[in-house]
Amino acid sequence: MNLPEFQEERKDNIKTTPAEGRLGVLMPGMGSVSTTFMAGVEAVKRGLAEPVGSLTQLGTVRLGKRTDARTPRIKDFVPLADLNDLVFGGWDIFDDNAYDAAVHAGVIEKSMLDQVREPLERIKPMSAVFDKEYVKRLDGPNVKQGSKMDKAQMLMADIESFRKDNDCARLAMVWCGSTEVFHRPEKVHQTLKDFECGLQKNDPDIAPSQIYAYAALKSGVPFANGAPNLTTDVPALLDLSKQNNVPICGKDFKTGQTFMKTLLAPGFKARMLGMKGWYSTNILGNRDGEVLDDPGSFKSKEETKLSVLEQILQPDLYPNLYGDLYHAVRINYYPPRGDQKEGWDNIDIFGWMGYPMQVKVNFLCRDSILAAPLVLDLVLFLDLAQRSGMRGIQEWLSFYFKGPMTAPGLYPEHDIFIQLMKLKNTLRHMRGEELITHLGLEYYD
Ligand SMILES: NC(=O)c1ccc[n+]([C@@H]2O[C@H](COP(=O)([O-])OP(=O)(O)OC[C@H]3O[C@@H](n4cnc5c(N)ncnc54)[C@H](O)[C@@H]3O)[C@@H](O)[C@H]2O)c1
Q: How many angstroms is it from 179 CA to the middle of ligand 1?
């Protein structure tokens, strides 16, 4: 077989083992996002739909000079798992199989769901680790009993049975469960020893999502956090990810309104336009909206949503432009809209000599349609990272998150274009290609 030009004489900086065998995707939470993701992948596999929104499936990466005409697809450039090798599993407090859960979520038309009914019906949720103190608006029958340590061990047993039953060579876990109430790192989160002791003693500060993450990391399974929960953002679990050589990333998928914010805000700042206020509100009627109607869960979401502007605009460096910014975010639960969220943004900016202007954004989006391709990319990239020996926080995956995890003491990069450059440069670095700085002086020599 003739290899394309970019694959000849590879000088990889990082050795990556091939993506051989099946990759199991495990998701705590089988609601709108995870079922839309699974149904979409099954539809793409059958040629019924296109994987729109997925960088791994549709994106390209430029290599070398602009005159070199080397722009392979990302999936041809780095060895990613094939969609046909993905198998799905999950946990939920409700016992609906993935087909019934997808029908209930109401994101994908039933006529399409019926064409992938058979693989979805086979996916039955394993019993969940759940604590109503962390998600006040939900309750369900499909839950595990025992101490927190018992539950962690039961999750590890679930992971191993799934691995064996589905003949998986590798696994990846993505938290697609509900948003938990806001909480800060406590003493129990500081060291692995404290954390394990806390599991034994049923410490109330250990959230269910942290028990899943602990079980994943102990089992050597990469973990991504799609919600704004604290989860792995604590020293104990960060240490465990490094100790066990497991890649992790999070938090909170960057879709809808915050995605728009991270597109617009860097633009205003690039032109040194000032900003007095940014008011964001939206209506959402799915189960996620219902959970976020609880002030504790909303507080978690508010934190990741609010931090974005502060980091992008850097009011400390530009006090005259952004020092007085008033930023408000509201989410209103409104059942008639289901998953079809509508967001409104009013942005008060000012220009030359302080003259005020306004920008209005009205985004009629589909929450889970935007999130599903992110789940796919995260699974494939986390698996790539693990096969490449990368461990701990994967900052190059910030592109996908509202509240990107970073090394302690480092501020996160929220500008989506910088995030994309970082992601692609990471892939170039892995494959021993020159990094692209956009300096471009060589074209004018
Ligand atoms: N859709 C988006 O655009 C988007 C963007 C950013 C973040 N998120 C986050 O992704 C998550 C999933 O969103 P969704 O729209 O699918 O919500 P959803 O309510 O439809 O699904 C969440 C599922 O998780 C289950 N669950 C809750 N706690 C659990 C536990 N401890 N163990 C197992 N299952 C549990 C619920 O029963 C529910 O079925 C939410 O936290 C949401 O905030 C979504």
A: 6
> Is residue 182 within 8 Å of residue 233, measured between CB atoms?
no
Give residue 304's pLDDT.
75
pLDDT on residue 107: 96
Q: Which stretches does DSSP call E strand in 168-234?
A: 168-175, 223-225
- The answer to whether 104 touches 42, Cβ cutoff 8 Å, is no
Q: Residue 402 to residues 76, 226, 229, 246: CA-CA distances in angstroms?
A: 28, 9, 12, 22
Q: Six-digit token pair at 82?
A: 């094939």
* C-alpha to C-alpha distance for 100 and 19, rounded to whole angstroms: 32
Rg (CA), the chain: 22
Where do the DSSP E strands lie in 142-196? 168-175
Q: Whose CA is nearest to atom 8 of ligand 1?
A: 227
Q: Which of 49-53, 81-85, 340-344 has the lowest mean pLDDT?
A: 340-344
Q: Using the predicted structure, report yes or no on whether residue 290 has a pLDDT greater than 70.
A: yes
Supply the pTM of this predicted model: 0.95
Beta bridge pairs of residue 126: 91
Give the residue-averaged pLDDT of 102-107. Answer: 96
Pocket flag, ligand 1, residue 289 (CB < 6 Å):
no
Segment (H or E) for 88? strand 86-92
* Cα–ligand 1 centroid distance for 22 (angstroms): 25
What's the pLDDT at 359?
98
Residue 259 to residues 31, 240, 253, 327, Cα–Cα distance (Å):
21, 31, 9, 16
User: Which of 155, 175, 286, 288 is the best mutation target for the ligand 1 pocket, counting ligand atoms within 8 Å of the beta carbon and taking the most?
Assistant: 288
Q: Which helix (H) or strand (E) holds 102?
A: helix 98-105
**Helices (H) and strands (E) in the chain — how many of each?**
16, 11
Residue 370, ligand 1, Cβ within 6 A: yes
Residue 285, CA distances (Å) to 35, 49, 132, 288, 401 in order? 17, 26, 21, 8, 22
Q: Rounded to the nearest 5°, which phi and psi values hold at 284? A: -150, 135
According to DSSP, the residues that pair with 249 across neighbouring strands are 224
Hey, whose CA ends up nearest to atom 25 of ligand 1?
Answer: 29
Answer yes or no: is the C-beta of 403 below 6 A from any ligand 1 atom: no
Neighbouring C-beta atoms of residue 203, cutoff 10 Å: 16
Instruction: Return d(Cα 374, Cα 366) in angstroms, integer.
Output: 14
Contact 331, 248 (CB under 8 A): no
Backbone angles phi, psi at 313, to 5 degrees: -85, -20
